[in-house]
Design a protein that fits this description.
The structure holds 2 protein chains of 2 kinds.
Chain A (H helix, E strand, L loop, with lengths): L3 E2 L10 H9 L4 E6 L2 E6 L4 H7 L6 E2 L6 E2 L12 E4 L2 E5 L10 E3 L14 H5 L15 H14 L15 E11 L3 H12 L4 E5 L26 E4 L2 E6 L2 E5 L4 E11 L3 E4 L11 E3 H9 L2 E2 L3 E5 L3 H10 L6 E5 L4 E4 L6 E4 L4 E4 L2 E4 L2 E4 L2 H5 L4 E4 L4 E4 L12 E3 L2 H4 L4 H19 L6
Helix pairs in contact in A: 5-10, 6-7
Chain B lengths: L5 E3 L4 E2 H9 L5 H8 L11 H13 L18 H5 L4 E5 L1
Antiparallel strand pairs in B: 1-2
Classes of the chains: A alpha/beta, B alpha+beta.
């Protein structure tokens, strides 16, 4: 066992990590099945974190090459943890919360994701599967036969056996919708609410707090939204059309129409380009921290690559875990090696090699601009952040009327205080817009 | 077998394929996406747009102009849930 569940006695007493883990593991113990094996979890814990704590790293296979994949971001931004849960295909195990009694099965693999015989495909195409040239010169019959097999063997799961019934779509009309309930989103919603506007605040997470909830070095309580704010937790914002935003929660779709929208959607954690960057056991630094907050240690021997807020938190928290070992590596010249999971990390600059169970990567914190872009905000490349971001003025107003952005979406890796202050500032500007005091 | 560098995990597009496509003249993100299929999978570009934009900038020496167009759904949604929009409940609020 390399990834495992931490015992309370292994964590330094009185630390933020000890408090986080104690809170996360106070729920009732439950269990579920994964490819025929029983896995223990705490009720309400993300399934992917329980699987990580049970050292079950290979959760899926990539769609074409059948490369082993596992949870990488642990926050619904990658494809690594897709599994079939009972009759439902393509469930992100990082977002599904354990109730107990579920049956999880890997998809598109035989006999399962851990031992997929089709992984020979990866060996067969050493430079990748270029469909423009794949068997094109070999004649039409060969090409069509290959296409048939390629289509059979790729894809994502199979349909449910029975159609699922969805509730009627709900509709809500408000003055302002804030998407993202982290520090900046809550501050923006409160600023709008205190000016007397009717505000809805949505987040895909079941809790308010955003990135603070994943910080193993800070066990503080996140700021709460005003009681008058219409809070919609566990609701993913899936699309923006005109003044309407579609949210999907456990019941179905909620269409929110709002005169003003404030996006506080934060960032995606991007694992950079290095050899073996998709191996199970390669985690974003934030994912590693999130798992640690639940008492799941992704590896005894950890290599941390890159400098940034989450790798600093990961190192600081690991220092509070008895027996955990941590080494540093440069993300610029990295290669992750291993057959089904990361076993070694090689730094090509100096040829140094380290054995490890987990490679923790602080990559680019790329702005989650998708919804703001759909709502009409112009997008631009930021040289400083090395990612695209929504174009906005100092108060977070974009070129699209009534569309605002705040928090780490526009600031990148700012402090908690700076993000909250930014949310309040942008919320106040959005309130001015609603009151008709602004040209935008 | 893990020596590949993946540019787009969801669609199994390697960095090598991206670099070859850039060399073949696909020197903007939209054209690169249409040729290689990067960004068209489960995550809709969350991971790979940045990786491919940096690869493009390194090859062309220019700052990337625009990302691939962000289209709905911004994250995976159930078609059955979206179909329920056809019969709408009365507006609340």
């Amino acid at each position: 066992m390399t990834a495992r569940r931490l015992a309370a006695s292994e964590i330094a007493k009185g630390t933020a990590l000890a408090r986080r883990v104690a809170a996360a593991t106070s729920a009732a113990g439950v269990s579920f099945e994964h490819d025929g094996e029983r896995v223990r979890a705490f009720e309400g814990e993300p399934l992917a974190i329980a699987l990580l704590a049970a050292d079950r790293l290979v959760l899926s296979r990539s769609p074409k090459l059948h490369r082993p994949r596992g949870a990488t971001c642990l926050r619904g931004h990658c494809e690594g943890c897709l599994v079939r849960v009972d009759d439902e295909p393509n469930v992100m195990a990082c977002r599904a919360l354990a109730r107990g009694g579920e049956s999880l099965r890997s998809q598109n693999a035989f006999p399962n994701a851990a031992l997929d015989v089709f992984s020979v495909t990866d060996w067969f195409f050493p430079r990748g599967m270029d469909h423009h040239h794949l068997f094109v010169g070999a004649g039409r019959a060969v090409n069509e036969t290959m296409q048939y097999f390629a289509r059979k063997m790729s894809g994502l799961g199979t349909l449910p056996e029975a159609p699922r019934a969805f509730a009627e779509a709900r509709r809500l009309r408000v003055d302002a919708l804030v998407v993202g309930a982290g520090a900046s989103g809550v501050a923006a919603a409160n600023a709008l609410c205190r000016k007397g506007f009717d505000v809805a605040l949505a987040d895909v997470s079941p809790r308010v707090g955003g990135s603070r909830l994943d910080d193993p070095t800070d066990a503080g309580e996140p700021d709460a939204p005003d009681a008058r704010v219409r809070l919609r937790l566990g609701a993913a914002a899936v699309a923006c059309f005109d003044d309407s935003t579609l949210l999907e929660d456990a019941e179905g779709v909620l269409e929110v129409r709002a005169r003003v929208r404030v996006f506080a959607t934060g960032t995606h954690d991007v694992v950079g380009a290095f050899a073996g960057n998709d191996l199970p056991g390669v985690l974003t630094a934030r994912a590693f921290c999130r798992a640690l907050c639940h008492g799941a240690l992704a590896g005894e021997r950890v290599v941390v690559a890159g400098e940034g807020p989450w790798s600093r938190r990961a190192r600081e928290a690991l220092a509070q875990v008895a027996g955990a070992r941590c080494e540093a590596a440069s993300p610029a010249s990295l290669a992750a090696l291993g057959s089904r999971r990361v076993e070694r990390v090689v730094t090509s600059a100096d040829g140094s090699e380290a054995r490890c169970d987990a490679l923790v990567v602080e990559g680019t914190a790329a702005a989650s601009y998708e919804l703001a872009g759909q709502a009409g905000a112009a997008l631009r490349w930021s040289e400083a952040r090395a990612c695209f971001e929504p174009a906005c003025d100092d108060d977070g107003a974009t070129d699209a009327p009534g569309v605002f952005v705040c928090g780490s979406l526009r600031l990148g890796g700012a402090s908690l205080e700076a993000r909250a202050a930014d949310g309040a500032r942008v919320g106040a500007r959005a309130a001015e817009h609603l009151a008709g005091g602004s040209a935008r | 077998m893990s020596e590949k560098t993946m540019a787009c995990r969801c669609e199994d597009v390697t960095l090598d394929e991206i670099e070859r496509a850039i060399a073949d003249g696909h020197d903007d993100l939209e054209s690169l996406k249409r040729y290689t299929g990067f960004g068209t999978g489960w995550c809709q570009g969350r991971q790979c747009v940045t990786v491919c934009a940096l690869a493009l900038a390194a090859k062309t020496g220019e700052a990337p102009r625009a990302p691939i167009t962000p289209r709905p759904p911004a994250q995976p949604a159930h078609l059955g849930a979206l179909a329920s929009l056809a019969k709408r409940a009365p507006e609340e609020g």
